[in-house]
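Worked Example 4.2. Read the sequence first, then its structure tokens.
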Amino acid sequence: MEDLKLIARIAGQEVAISADAVESVVEIDAITPVPLAAGHIAGLAALRSRVLTIIDTYAALKLGQSPRDGVIQAIVVTIDNHLYGLLVDEVVDVAAITGDPQTLHAGLSPGWAHAALGLVEHQDRALLLLDPARIVAGPLSAAA
């Protein structure tokens, strides 16, 4: 099966997200914090007169806080009719990737393992295929 994947970098790791789940890629000008929000929610931002909940992918994957120096890029996804922006270090490419995701056999940290759907191969390297809904849900401890 061939499917388009968006390839992005999070914490130095290149990952893939199904392009079907992606609405757009945007640069975020300002993030307004939300008091008492879960730790992986960076805040809110405006996107074409709509509210976008910004998810700190580093925090969602239990990697600390994402750096917010310079240009802030986000992958916009819709989950349960709500817009979310997943913060990424960089959007690398969009690629047609052939084959079903392979089962993960290697030990991953709990955050990556929770968000991963499997491995896909692109240009002779393995990429984690991430589920945006699991990133939005946050770390397992927050989701439980």
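Now turn to a second chain, presented in exactly the same format:
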Amino acid sequence: MPHADFAPASAEARPLHLVAADRLDAALAALPAPARAWAEAQGFKAAAGAVLPLPDGAGGLWGALVGLGDAKARARGRFIAAGAASKLPEGDWRLDGETDPALAEETALGWLMESYRFDRYARQGAAKARLVAPEGVDADRIRAIAAGEALTRDLINTPAADMGPAELEEAAEDLAEAYGARLAVTQAGDLIAANLPLIHTVGRAAAPHRAPRLIDMRWGDAGPTLTLVGKGVCFDTGGLNLKPGASMGLMKKDMGGAATVLGLAQMIMALGLKVRLRVLIPAVENAVSGDAFRPGDILQSRKGLTVEVNNTDAEGRLVLADALALGAEENPDLMISMATLTGAARVAVGADLAPFYSDADADAEAIARAARKVADPVWRMPFHDPYEPMIEPGIADLDNAPSGGMAGSITAALFLRRFAEGTRYAHFDIYGWNPKPAPARPKGGVGMGARALLEAMPELLGLGA
């Protein structure tokens, strides 16, 4: 679906003033008399997200004010000014030339993300206000980031009936074609021969037209090697450990890891980062049929480790295991997995934070710094080695769902680390969904961690300034 873009520079664009509450008096004093009188009459206090169109004194529209709130509101919020995209009257707008450069960049990106609409099935009332790219910002970079985020949102928001493994493959094909990447897909009938048994086992119960596959995309021929692995469970019933209805309602988003790595890959390719990129997506549906895998089964993995199945609803780590083992065989300079993996992560940090795991302190610090800079919040979690015995059942090498209910996100991450052994590795346990609308983040599918990783790439991979 088309994504939002900036308005062309034009003398017709109206001025947009971003006003902090503690600078309101100075901001009002700088306005033309009719606009100032109107703002004072309306009692504008520059509350966070407040928008006030301003008259020109001749019955027309001169410009607008957007409140940023006080220091406390600004510390708590992000993309505060971006909500104006959905509140302002139709037309083109330009930021006041005195806007802080960092605020201008955040607002520009937030504006494009606020303007996103998922309108595949019904018209959503597109934002009519367009922003001229502020002076001094890298408009092409912002466009690329917003477009990658839009791709992620579109994929997650699409219902499972229209976003199964085959459709996820088509999305990867479209992306590869657009950027000259190479795509190879291991289809269901070849998964066993290709030594991808866990992907086959999890997906084998699905209908033939929703059969499992491994999507493998490569791009770039120079620079450090980066492998992105995304969980592509296009719908998760829970398998024979069937989820209750309330837990199944959002399972169209269980391919959010795949959607996020594809969005990140689009950003990387659009910006021409000097890396050799590989994207691996095990695309499956965890369905229920006579051929479904069972609790108590002991499964073989690509790496040779055996896995006891204690819950068929812990399937994401199984399909990721084979993909991680495949990726690790090339010993990339950095491998990252992204997955909507555990409810435990949501209990720990909620819907807004992307928890991640890394054994490398320098990598974790680089990701955290980048996340703060681009307002894409993350939180480091521990690969806590003393919990390793929790994933060792004795009857097999590994347990896919340790009993006890404790440390669920950590034990899942430890499980995945076994298959990424020998590589420099980070894992993101994301939610992929915004439960209520916020500036630049409408309710629905959302990318988490991708912008932070993109910002951190130069430091993580030594790409230079």
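Notes for the reader: The radius of gyration is 24 Å. The mean pLDDT is 96.
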